[in-house]
Design brief:
5-stranded mixed beta sheet; Transcription Regulator spoIIAA; single chain; 20% strand; 126 residues; alpha/beta
Amino acid sequence: MKSRTGMHLNRDCLILTIRAELYDEFVEWVQQGIIEEFGRSRLNGVVIDLADVTLVDTHQARKLFDTAKMVRLFGGHTVFTGISAGIAISLVDLGVEPGAFFTAVGIEQGVALLEDVKNDTQHSRG
């Protein structure tokens, strides 16, 4: 499964690049890996790049959205990048609100967005 994805840390951000179409067991493996990493590390957030994924079914989309909610419970944020029309349709079919997570065009923009959110959060606490 690791050949289907690339997962690495960039400072306090986990970057996950999915390089193949999704299937249920793979999405569960991805979810588990993200949550385990948040349990081990003090991360600001995760960028999940879906640029190579053209379509997800509603079960897979729900799992990805649930992962974003779990990350939020850890105090982190999720940015999805490279969302295709098929993924957007699945998320709308699920009734996912646009403000439920962040989106960006590419990985670099996603990492920058997480950094901005982190800075905004620190300023509002200070």
